TrEMBL record, chain A:
The lineage of its organism: Eukaryota, Viridiplantae, Streptophyta, Embryophyta, Tracheophyta. Pfam families: LSM (PF01423). This is Sm-like protein LSM2. One of its GO terms (biological process) is mRNA splicing, via spliceosome. One of its GO terms (cellular component) is Lsm1-7-Pat1 complex. InterPro entries: LSM_dom_sf (IPR010920), Sm (IPR047575), Sm_dom_euk/arc (IPR001163), U6_snRNA_Lsm2 (IPR016654). Keywords: mRNA processing, mRNA splicing, Nucleus, Ribonucleoprotein, RNA-binding, Spliceosome. GO terms for molecular function: RNA binding. Belongs to the snRNP Sm proteins family.
TrEMBL record, chain B:
LSm subunits form a heteromer with a doughnut shape. PANTHER family: LSM1, U6 SNRNA-ASSOCIATED SM-LIKE PROTEIN LSM8. GO terms for biological process: mRNA splicing, via spliceosome. It comes from the Eukaryota. Belongs to the snRNP Sm proteins family. Pfam families: LSM. Residues 2-78 form the Sm domain. Keywords: mRNA processing, mRNA splicing, Nucleus, Ribonucleoprotein, RNA-binding, Spliceosome. The gene is LSM8. InterPro entries: Lsm8, LSM_dom_sf, PTHR15588, Sm, Sm_dom_euk/arc. Plays role in pre-mRNA splicing as component of the U4/U6-U5 tri-snRNP complex that is involved in spliceosome assembly, and as component of the precatalytic spliceosome (spliceosome B complex). The heptameric LSM2-8 complex binds specifically to the 3'-terminal U-tract of U6 snRNA. It is found in: Nucleus. GO terms for cellular component: precatalytic spliceosome; U4/U6 x U5 tri-snRNP complex; U6 snRNP. This is U6 snRNA-associated Sm-like protein LSm8.
Length: 108, 98
């Protein structure tokens, strides 16, 4: 419950979700549920060259940089396959989290 | 308790499912439940390899058990149709290890 509430407060933030198959997806947190399933919007895959599975079209500007349009924009990630959720440091109030987890540990 | 992000908004849309064994299956979402079990119509699997372009295997009407699903992505059909799959090379996705 604690993390469900925590993620609900983080809706709208940019996060990177790393899955158990090493795929990392960056996007805006749209919603979360009790199973910590995550819905992301405006998704892009970190390290796109290795994982073009969600990619549509790559335009290579003289190999200086390449721009890829993704055919998957929004995605639903099952909670059971998440390894990490990387958060922006400004989005994290360590003290608050610390207190909340202490309370949870005591009460649980 | 709130049920949060259901797959409700994706019903009747074309979606791309990535399964725990690393397969990519594209189809139209017809139904789902709380366990993320999914009913997928007109589905086909996209097999990626490093040697040849993407292979598409037609599957038809499928039920995929929620245990095996890692990602359900909303596919933008216009963009996806612009894809040249024969040119796409990739290592197969790794399987999910808990």
């Amino acid at each position: 419950m604690l993390f469900f509430s925590y993620f609900k407060d983080l809706v709208g933030r940019e996060v990177t979700v790393e899955l158990k198959n090493d795929l990392a997806i960056r996007g805006t947190l749209h919603s979360v549920d009790q199973y910590l399933n995550i819905k992301l919007e405006n998704t892009r895959v970190v390290d796109q060259d290795k994982y073009p599975h969600m990619v549509i079209q790559c335009v290579d500007y003289n190999s200086v940089f390449s721009f890829c349009k993704l055919s998957v924009r929004n995605c639903f990630i099952r909670g059971s396959v998440v390894r990490y959720v990387q958060l922006p440091p400004e989005g994290v109030d360590i003290e608050l989290l610390h207190d909340a987890t202490r309370r949870e540990a005591r009460g649980g | 308790m709130a049920s949060g992000p259901g797959l409700e908004s994706l019903v009747d849309q074309t979606i791309s499912v990535i399964t725990n064994d690393g397969r990519n299956i594209v189809g139209v979402l017809k139904g789902f439940d709380q366990a993320t079990n999914i009913i997928l119509d007109e589905s086909h699997e996209r097999v990626f390899s490093t040697k040849e372009g993407v292979q598409q295997l037609v599957l038809g009407l499928y039920i995929i058990r929620g245990d095996n699903i890692s990602i359900v992505g909303e596919l933008d059909e216009e963009l996806d149709s612009g894809l040249d799959l024969s040119q796409l090379r990739a290592h197969p996705l790794k399987p999910i290890i808990h």
